[in-house]
Recover the amino acids of this structure.
């Protein structure tokens, strides 16, 4: 099955470590991190604009996140938190997969069963797989595994070799089956003719065809990665360029003082300091519009209206009405 490009590049990197049919355990953990961050980045892109700026709040936290646990926390908010009230219609199927109860016979159940068997090799007292669970469980378990091994553990090579095949099988199931990875992903760059170069990151890009024609001039999309949730949705928590050689993700180390944030390419290990200015403003509700109506009526001239007070220097004649 054809994977979206960010995942395919990571699997190609991991495949280079294959020895005797078994890939390196540490490489699998990097693959898992890319799966998690790509999944969360796509789901964040599925949150529409709203006065409380839920999408901005999630991005604000994640560009500052110094651990994978905060990405899992964001997924919890995207799963059952208030951000779900603002999901775009095109992301609802992926959201249902995240919140549905999965049992034996489903691909998600098998992915969790395999991952739990890996965890129990390092943490024998870990709980058994429940009869049913929601789709977010796989991501929480992966974060737990990563923290118990590379994060805060010292597993032996024998332990890692014993479970490498199960970990690979679990990761591949999520890479191939997760609904959000089976949508259309593209990299968009506007050219001098005001049309867009649309570079597919997935098998197809039909949702983005209108950006290639004359009608593209009526659109205004920033260069970057987009996912097809009906109207294209910018994936602001991933960065690349038209070469599509590597993909960068937030990697913590946000420095308010010099307005920089660190982003990491898992494919090459390269790090970049990107401009953090778009994420300097603390999360809060957007201020009301100057023309927003009041909640109560008052006398304006000879009429009752809910018009806001006029701006300084603006005069309303005594006979003005609405």
């Amino acid at each position: 099955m054809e994977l979206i490009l960010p995942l395919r590049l990571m699997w190609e990197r991991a495949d280079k470590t294959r020895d005797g049919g078994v890939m390196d355990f540490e490489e699998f953990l990097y693959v898992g991190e890319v799966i998690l961050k790509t999944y969360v980045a796509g789901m964040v892109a599925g949150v529409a604009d709203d006065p409380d700026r839920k999408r901005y709040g999630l991005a604000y936290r994640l560009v500052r996140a110094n651990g994978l646990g905060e990405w899992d926390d964001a997924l919890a908010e995207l799963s059952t938190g208030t951000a779900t009230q603002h999901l775009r219609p095109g992301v609802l199927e992926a959201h249902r997969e995240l919140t549905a109860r999965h049992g034996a016979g489903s691909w998600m159940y098998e992915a969790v069963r395999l991952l739990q068997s890996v965890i129990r090799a390092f943490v024998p007292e870990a709980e058994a797989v429940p009869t049913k669970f929601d789709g977010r469980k796989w991501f929480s378990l992966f974060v737990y595994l990563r923290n118990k091994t590379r994060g805060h553990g010292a597993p032996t090579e024998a332990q890692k070799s014993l479970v490498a095949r199960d970990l690979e099988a679990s990761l591949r199931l999520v890479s191939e089956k997760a609904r959000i990875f089976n949508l259309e992903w593209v990299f968009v760059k506007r050219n001098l003719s005001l049309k867009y170069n649309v570079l597919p990151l997935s098998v197809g890009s039909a949702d983005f065809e209108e950006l290639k024609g004359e009608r593209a001039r009526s659109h205004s999309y920033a260069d970057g990665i987009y996912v097809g949730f009906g109207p294209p949705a910018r994936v602001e928590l991933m960065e690349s360029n038209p070469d599509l050689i590597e993909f960068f993700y937030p990697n913590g180390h946000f420095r308010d003082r010099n307005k920089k944030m660190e982003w990491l390419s898992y494919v090459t290990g390269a790090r970049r300091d990107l401009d953090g200015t778009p994420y300097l403003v603390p999360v809060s509700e957007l201020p009301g519009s100057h023309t927003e109506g009041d909640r109560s009526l008052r006398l304006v001239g000879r009429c009752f209206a809910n018009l806001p007070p006029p701006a300084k220097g603006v005069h309303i004649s005594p006979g003005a009405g609405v």
Residues 312-322 have pLDDT under 50 and may be disordered. The longest strand covers residues 185-190. Residues 25-45 form the longest helix (21 residues).
